[in-house]
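Batch 3, record 17
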Amino acid sequence: MTSRTTACLRALVLRAHACSRHHHHHHRTISTSVQGHPPTTTTNIPECYLPANSRPASSHTGPCGRVVSLRSHTCGELRCEHAGVKVALYGWVQYLRQDVFVVLRDHSGLTQVVISRDDNMPTGGIEVLAENLEVLNACRKLPFEIKDFLKKSESLRMRYRYLDLRSSQMQRNLRLRSRLSMRMREYLCNDHDFVDVETPTLFKRTPGGAKEFVVPSREPGRFYSLPQSPQQFKQLLMVAGVDRYFQFARCYRDEGSKPDRQPEFTQVDIEMSFVEQTGVMALVEGLLQYSWPPELGTLSWPFPCITYAEAMRDYGSDKPDTRFHMKLVDISEVFLNTEMEFLKSALSQSEGSIQAICVPGGGTLFKAKDLEALKETARTVFGQELSVVVLRADGSLKSALSKHLSPADTEGLLGKMGARPGDLLLVSACSLHTVRPLLGKLRLQCAGLLEARGVALRDPAEFHFLWVVDFPLFLPKEEDPGALESAHHPFTVRGQHYDLVLNGCEVGGGSIRIHKASEQLHVLKNILKEDDSLLSHLLEALDSGAPPHGGIALGLDRLVSLMVGAPSIRDVIAFPKSFRGHDLMSQAPDYVSEEDLKPYHISVTWPPAEGEGK
Amino acid sequence: MTSRTTACLRALVLRAHACSRHHHHHHRTISTSVQGHPPTTTTNIPECYLPANSRPASSHTGPCGRVVSLRSHTCGELRCEHAGVKVALYGWVQYLRQDVFVVLRDHSGLTQVVISRDDNMPTGGIEVLAENLEVLNACRKLPFEIKDFLKKSESLRMRYRYLDLRSSQMQRNLRLRSRLSMRMREYLCNDHDFVDVETPTLFKRTPGGAKEFVVPSREPGRFYSLPQSPQQFKQLLMVAGVDRYFQFARCYRDEGSKPDRQPEFTQVDIEMSFVEQTGVMALVEGLLQYSWPPELGTLSWPFPCITYAEAMRDYGSDKPDTRFHMKLVDISEVFLNTEMEFLKSALSQSEGSIQAICVPGGGTLFKAKDLEALKETARTVFGQELSVVVLRADGSLKSALSKHLSPADTEGLLGKMGARPGDLLLVSACSLHTVRPLLGKLRLQCAGLLEARGVALRDPAEFHFLWVVDFPLFLPKEEDPGALESAHHPFTVRGQHYDLVLNGCEVGGGSIRIHKASEQLHVLKNILKEDDSLLSHLLEALDSGAPPHGGIALGLDRLVSLMVGAPSIRDVIAFPKSFRGHDLMSQAPDYVSEEDLKPYHISVTWPPAEGEGK
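Prediction for the assembled complex:
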């Protein structure tokens, strides 16, 4: 036995059998007692048949009381009323004090075990008096202690994930995720007749599937593809008459190094026949209400619903964080007769507009470097200059704009913005397609700055669900604005695409699908200019009496991370990859011998070494 | 509208709104009535608020009665008591009779809809009188009719899987699978505190993982591997203190063309800390009892349990079909003093034995070609000659052996075998390692032959679960009998490996794992001669206070296929691959352009064309 500090480092697995202290079974080698403080009545119950206090008795026993587990109770389960009861506990040593007290830990909590046999009675609601302790496994010196307050580097956490997962926060995250999934399944399967159907992950490459991993087969040149979603399969299941399908689907996306993305992720995938948009939305609201953990409060419904146009107009984003205001305001009319060249030129261009947001308290709270950071965002991300107007506490304006504004214009501007002394106005003038996303982004940046200055703007315990509807069917391609791409995906019925947003993050998206082959062909061939032969099986299926259908997919990792307030989805995934796509524990991906690649008829094309290439 | 035959071929999606016939709402354009036969009382209920008869009302509505689905009832739901009720039905046209009667089909069943408005009242419990029918989609001429009795080729079924799945048998299979999974989850998650944890499928190649698909990454030469099971992760989760883990895990195995195997399959993966073998077995028995569909009868428990040695001794198999007898009998002692050379030589070799099975009625039922087929199996699969002894109906023997047997020996043999006139004895003499699998295989072949001759030997509605325990830890490698391989896998504690067998098929396997790093290292390094550096992360984890733990994995596809009596696991998988690993609907795996392979630094090594190679 070692000192307290060292003992915390050594996670020994212990076994503590216990029996009634009031019936000193000295003939038993394995026995202790549970002491209540104050002591309560004593019951002697046959070992291993103890009903658990806070969980179903069946948790420890199987059918007809057959023993499933060696334990009688978990460490977090014992209460005063267990005094005198025989228990069998299993866990890890959290603390060892003076070789007398052992604090035993498992996933449910802690219990103090007294090793000494003298009749001392320490304070505390309950403790276990050990007559026998068995060390089940020894432990090397761990790379870090299992303590919640300990800050560990991300790479250390990932390399020793099996230790990192022992923290109470990660235990809570995994258990909440499991519980949420179970409740969702109950709602879909038991209450709404959905069928849980597993669809293949070894599939065919989809048109434009640049982000799909390939999997070589044993036939030369032929590859499977790991799909980004079961979209085709869910629609085929509707054609197959499955009527209501759901799946917690593993999806794959090869995006190289994007922060907070994972090469594999999970979506709650839902599809229904004979349904309209309102039906899918009502179903999802019911789903979240039913499965929402009570400790996170209750969800009110129906969820608010705004159009894509309203979201872009008011928040400059198609996934607005509605926990705070600071909405975008069109102030073009204030400047209709302006002499300022950059404003005039902005207004004269097609869809030109002058817009602003008002940051309450930003005028006094933000420092010069904050304003510079905001301008920097406008410049680097959007290629635009940003005008700032500081309202001093005395009501006077500090701005390059102010000298060009008449008192009436100033009054008009402040009135329109609802600005008060101490506030900050951010003004941008350019085309609508730029000014909205620009101010939308600055709005979030300002929220972060305000919070860094101590303003309680967004309550992490508040959950603002929001539907965004009436998306345009097609948007100009980001890389090639002359061509169009689907706003959602090419199987969507016009104007029937809906996104679910939580606290400014997209947590779901769906649509009513095109169910007529001729319409689908038109969209693929004439509008999106895709090679429709790659989807001939889907077109054939639609032509086989496909029912009207629609659905949604919820991003489970993102949803859970918002629910538990985790900064990254890596905190709600048991074994995530690093942002470079590596498993730091096992060192995957790893080198594979040429011999092992032979059956797949592939060989590695090594890039020229540094300094070697042309 | 077309003739009946053509209409059956055309699966049109229809919409039939209905209202009370007793309240002729002629002002409504979309209305029909439901007629009971004999008519019962009439209730007029607001549309879309109809309580469903056989399923929860919430199935059609969301929270607080908000409408989820457009239908008010499914086609299989209407009963006489719905007479007079307004309904909205959606489905496919199954039959069209004289342009008057439409039989509408959905996943739940059929309903007859009368299009004519005259007051005829045909027989049948209930029908829907349509005032409005809307065709929601048209349909090409299908490659086959959606009729259960229709025999289709496997390749046609696979190519048009979305039509094949419309059959009532496939609908039943998918729905039973979904229901079973749901019940299993309830038992594990709700009743026994298991945590559903998703583990990665993009992982590192395991030692000897010849059957693992590789997935190229964007780093030259580095590959992920699709794991055959989450074995390492489930053990790491125990080290992480998750205590009880389960997952319906997608697993991958690249075996090329093996009949009735799938490159991806699903296992119910379970692991527990602080548990012994009996605990895992009790848990699984409870799991199957809880989730067993009532229509398949009840399961009795505890399941019978035999040792590996007993299974091999009595059935010549480690997964015996215990629905029938025909056990192996050691008849060596009958022949201790035999003069027959091949028997003498068999007995003189190490572990030599003479064994036999008695096939009741085989002597009269089996034809000469049946006996030849049995001998052929012994010859081709095991390289052994088989002796057959036919007991004629008059009690006389027909066998090459008989003239070498004294009357006392004959009596001894027949007595030992419990043979009666009309029976057949199959006798084999060689080493135990051959004679047992040989007779085990012939036992099954004889069962098939007897059933082909009309004997009801194995009841497909009977479900005989059986535990096989006490497996040897290591078995000689099949390919290299001098070396050893793990009977289960290299993480198994000695003598703590158990298999679950159902009707002669292995449906699950598990073990108590090695939880001490030193023991695990010894097994990997000294016994199995594996490269332990590939498992260094697991060894490190065991050395971090790993608790004693064990678990099991159930093969869900196989289990469900046995439950529904399907000849192949392809009948319980929505979109299976062909035996060559192809998706016949989408033509996966498919060719991928060199351009698309570039980011993965691989190129295809084309084998030399026919006649070109050396």
